[in-house]
Design brief:
Helix content is 52%, strand content 7%. By secondary structure, the protein is α/β, with parallel strands linked by helices. It has a five-stranded parallel sheet, sandwiched between helices.
């Protein structure tokens, strides 16, 4: 059942149900899911309501159900996202995967997945044909923040004047990256984080032991995507944490031992060898690590949800994240996120980050 994949979001689900029953579902909706709280699950559910099907199997077999998603193109060739359709449908079976998960499924390496003009043209050709069953047609676009400007402008015409009985459902993690001319034409739904009670019940329903549930809840921070990943990570080391701990320890040793410079450079090279989605996840993990250290240093440890899978003590990092360097450290990581997402040279970026982060961590609080 499509409804069974939705964890929490009861108020939004009731709104969708009421609109569907009253025949008032808008022709263009955007689900804004910044934290892995079920945007794709709600998108699939809404598509099912429109097409009159209740199961995932029937939905993906429906001739008037169409999908758009980020894909990669071989050098010199056009994007053919429908060639990845079988992989995409497997991905949708657990509709809480991230962009990094999707790129790993595609085996895209360091290539960036995009939704390009060719994919949009292909979909437009289909939706301008008569419905197979004489009813509605649905286009579900996941990863809407990955649509390039050319494709977005090409799609805008269909959003402004949709073919008869055609519905568009966008799912995005970053609404601010959509063209204003697109987002302004949609009914926007921002997903809330899942409350602890609902998440605990959902984890218990998956057979997770009570003591494990209590460990997962603070790690998940209201995100079912994080909760699912935490289940698999408990009892094993998180590779992002391992790499961050190695880098931080090298940074602290660098003050007394100049030879550690070579170790920092090797650390940067190790990072640069990862796929681009893995690098972006690594940087996001670093931002959260710094935030958790800040909470401890600023006397708000009760708000911290950090759980180490390597034995790392966040309290030992906390004194080095203070009022004099916090903003600069966060800005450094945000800058690297920006540059790496735009295909900057990873080795150069991470070498620069290693040396600047070392200086910032050794900065004294005034």
């Amino acid at each position: 059942m499509l409804a069974a994949n939705i964890i929490g979001q009861e108020q939004l689900k009731r709104t969708l149900d009421n609109s569907s029953e009253n025949g008032q579902l808008p022709h263009f909706q955007v689900f804004i899911d910044e934290s892995g709280c079920g945007g794709l699950a709600l998108g699939l559910y809404t598509a099912g309501r429109i097409l009159g099907v209740e199961t995932f199997e029937k939905l993906i077999q429906h001739p008037d159900m169409h999908f758009l998603f980020p894909s990669v193109a071989s050098s010199g060739s056009k994007q053919r996202p429908q060639e990845d359709l079988a992989t995409w449908l497997r991905f949708c079976e657990n509709p809480y995967g991230s962009y990094a998960d999707w790129m790993a499924d595609l085996d895209g390496g360091n290539k960036e997945g995009i939704i390009g003009k060719d994919a949009v043209v292909e979909i437009q050709e289909k939706i301008h044909l008569k419905s197979f069953l004489g009813r509605a047609k649905v286009v579900l676009l996941w990863g809407a923040e990955r649509i390039n400007a050319t494709a977005a402008n090409k799609l805008l015409k269909s959003l402004e004047e949709p073919p008869k009985d055609t519905y568009f459902i966008f799912v995005t993690t970053a609404a601010n990256q959509l063209l204003p001319t697109i987002s302004s034409r949609a009914q926007n739904h921002r997903l809330a984080r899942i409350d602890s009670t609902t998440m605990a019940q959902a984890l218990a329903a998956k057979g997770v032991a009570k003591e494990m549930v209590q460990r997962i809840l603070p790690m998940a921070e209201g995100s079912w995507e994080k909760a699912l990943k935490s289940i698999g990570q408990l009892g094993s080391e998180n590779p992002h944490e391992v790499l961050w701990v190695n880098g931080l320890r090298a940074a602290f040793r660098a003050k007394q031992n100049k030879g550690v410079v070579q170790e920092l450079m090797a650390w940067a090279e190790t990072l640069a060898q990862q796929t681009r989605p893995q690098q972006l996840d690594f940087l996001h993990f670093g931002l959260e690590l710094i935030r958790q250290a800040m909470l401890h240093n600023f006397g708000s440890s009760s708000l911290s949800s950090f759980y180490s899978q390597t034995g790392f003590d966040i309290k030992k990092l906390a004194p080095f994240v203070h009022s004099e360097n916090l903003v600069a450290i966060q800005q450094l990581l945000q800058d690297k996120l920006y540059f790496i997402s735009r295909n900057a040279n990873g080795k150069i970026q991470y070498t620069d980050m290693a040396f600047r982060l070392t200086r910032l961590l050794h900065q004294k609080e005034g």
